């Protein structure tokens, strides 16, 4: 059973609109990733490798921006750069996975009930 809204979304104009909307939403993260790539290409080779984390801070920033978008990705990057201090030991620090809308609540399904018995 389809609703009038579903029929509107399936039109070619709506499809183009959604594609443009997604591109506009990704634009800030894309600009930031471009700036990071410029740094990695032109500035980073001139410096000694001193990053104590894996992945490196620039790799982390690009992954965070691609995974979480501009706002949260930039926040995660700033937090990661704040950890880059002498009192932090470093090590493995991956980008946290993106949570879905219903990731916070776990509903028990029939398979869960079978496992618990």
TrEMBL record:
Entries under InterPro entries matching the protein: Membr_insert_effic_factor_YidD
Keyword Cell cycle among UniProt keywords: no
Entry's localization field: Cell membrane
Signal peptide: none
Topology versus the membrane: Peripheral membrane protein
Annotated stretches, region: Disordered: 89-117
Keywords, in A-Z order: Cell membrane, Membrane
Bias-annotated ranges (Basic and acidic residues): 99-117
PANTHER family named among the record's database cross-references: MEMBRANE PROTEIN INSERTION EFFICIENCY FACTOR-RELATED
Purpose of the protein: Could be involved in insertion of integral membrane proteins into the membrane.
Family: Belongs to the UPF0161 family.
Record protein name field: Putative membrane protein insertion efficiency factor
């Amino acid at each position: 059973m389809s609703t009038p809204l579903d029929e509107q979304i399936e039109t070619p104009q709506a499809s183009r609109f959604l594609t443009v909307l997604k591109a506009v939403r990704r634009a800030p993260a894309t600009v930031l990733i471009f700036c990071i790539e410029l740094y990695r290409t032109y500035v980073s080779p001139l410096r000694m490798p001193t990053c104590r984390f894996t992945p490196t801070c620039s790799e982390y920033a690009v992954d965070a921006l691609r995974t979480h978008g501009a706002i949260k990705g930039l926040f995660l990057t700033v937090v990661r750069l704040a950890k880059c201090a002498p009192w932090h030991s470093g090590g493995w620090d991956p980008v946290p996975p993106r949570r879905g809308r219903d990731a916070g609540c776990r509903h028990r399904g029939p398979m869960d009930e079978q496992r618990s018995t």
